[in-house]
Amino acid sequence: MNRFSLKTKIVCFTVSLLVFVVFQFPLTAFSAQETDQQNMNKGQRPEVIFPVISDVHIEKNGMEDLRKFETALNQLNEHAPHQDAFVVVGDLTDYGLKEEYERFFSIYNEKKNPQAVSLFTIGNHDYWNGLSIEDAQKRFLDETGMGAIYGHKVIKDYHFIWLGPENGVTEGYYSKEQIQWLDKQLNEAEKDDPRKPIFVFLHQPLTETVFGSEWGTVTNRDLLYNTLKKYPQSINFSGHTHYPLDDPRTIHQENFTSVGTSSVKYMWTEAGYLQGELPPGHETISQGLIVEAYKNKVVIKRRDFHNDAWVGEDWVIKRPFKPQTFKYTETRDHKAPYFTKDAEISAVKNPASSDRVVIKFTQADDNLLVHSYKVVAREKDTGQVALEYEAFSEYYRNPVPDPLLLPVQGLKPDTGYTIEVTAIDAFENESQSNLTLDVKTKP
User: Fold this and answer.
1) What does the pLDDT read at residue 1?
2) Residue 152, φ and ψ in degrees, nearest 5
3) What number of helices (H) and strands (E) belong to the chain?
4) Which of 94-103, 285-294, 344-353 has the lowest mean pLDDT?
5) Taking a C-beta distance cutoff of 8 angstroms, is the pair 92, 60 a contact?
6) pTM, full prediction
7) What is each CA distance from 8 to 4, 15, 287, 392, in whole angstroms?
8) Which residues pair with 359 in a beta bridge?
9) Which residues have a Cβ under 8 Å from the Cβ of 247 and sit 6 or more positions away?
């Protein structure tokens, strides 16, 4: 299934459902202060520094994609003026057309750091040009100047290894031959210096790793995972999902480290929520990373290009790189979100009708991220559940709306309901004390 072909239908449905509530009552969201610590770690200078972005999706015409790309490069140059490498992990283009590559490099070549080594991985969209697999790969290599779709470079004594999907299948195909080659490269890097991280780049993530990796590679997945598992010092950067960097699950550690890179072009996110996979405002969201390697740690900084701001706190991966010391695991968070004592919930008087109400409530707090809310409406007389759904907290917006407005619809006229709102964090912990509201629909 090509999820990107569903974009127009999903957007139309979502906007029609939420147009009256989505951009009201903002509250400034947390973003890391742009202090000296953001540009240099307490006086220490990184041994190597490089941005990682993905999913630029340059089209053959139009200006918005070029504007977003230029904005991203300007901010990366401002906050990392002395780059040693620059990495784009796939989907440079929307359809792998020659004109799209030309437009990509018209911006990139003007803005790139002259001293930075450019590394580009091929993505599934870069195959979607009607050419044979071999010709699509040749076009990618000719246009980017990369020697092969997978390779290995040493930059300032750090090992950079990139992989490439071998066809245009959405979930990504990495052959056994390529994975066996990767094993040899990782072994070589470890022998060179077992204390240092090894940076690995690929377009599609491995399933069951980062946030959104359900869209990741399936064929030979276990072979690839078990290969990386032998090298816990490997840090694996992937794109493809477009999932937002705001969610703490975008970094994942178990046997090695995996990091999602979001998208320069637009955001995508999970299905099953009121706002949809492409929620209102998704097309404005543009994000990327800056990576700094020090003698004793790797620091990963998340950037909102659309807001010209940092996202949350830096992710810090400390040496030695051992699974038993990993911080960003799936079991890292057991603290439930909570509503403060002064949290309020009410019904918005207008718009109102006989079959719907709009609720307005104070957003909950959490130690990491309030991801979503469960909304349940029960008939007061019978206790029967009339409506139940989950909605994003809209954590991906900056500022995050507070209070949050959500519709409760499909109700009976002239009927009393009790509405309960439960907060849910990124790791599915649920609030213990919830907000409740009694309402009655119009006759």
Assistant:
1) 40
2) -150, 125
3) 7, 22
4) 344-353
5) no
6) 0.90
7) 9, 11, 22, 20
8) 347, 406
9) 211, 369, 371, 395, 396, 426
**Residue 114 CB burial class (10 angstroms; 0-12, 13-18, ≥19):** exposed
The domain 345-440 belongs to what CATH superfamily? Immunoglobulins (2.60.40.10)
For residue 319, give both structure tokens: 């040496």
Q: Is the pLDDT of residue 342 over 60?
A: yes
Give pLDDT, residue 110.
98
Looking at domain 31-262+294-325, its CATH class is: alpha beta
- Please name the residue ranges forming H helices in 128-203: 133-144, 176-192
Q: Quick check: 374 and 390 in contact, CB under 8 A?
A: yes
How far apart, in whole angstroms, are the C-alpha atoms of residue 355 and residue 412? 5
CB distance 196 to 159 below 8 Å:
yes
HEC letters along 207-264: CCCCCCHHHCECCCHHHHHHHHHCCCCEEEEECCCCCCCCCHHHEEECCCEEEECCCC
370-401 tens-digit pLDDT: 999 999 999 999 999 999 999 999 999 989 99
Query: In the block, which residue shows the tokens 């992989």?
Result: 163
Only one residue has tokens 């977003």, namely: 68
Residue 19 has pLDDT above 80, yes or no: no
The structural domains of the chain, with segments of one domain joined by +, span: 31-262+294-325, 345-440
Contact 339, 364 (CB under 8 A): yes
Cβ-contact 434, 418 below 8 angstroms: no
Q: What is the rounded CA–CA span in Å between residue 341 and residue 335?
A: 18
- CA proximity to 286, closest of 304, 312, 302: 304
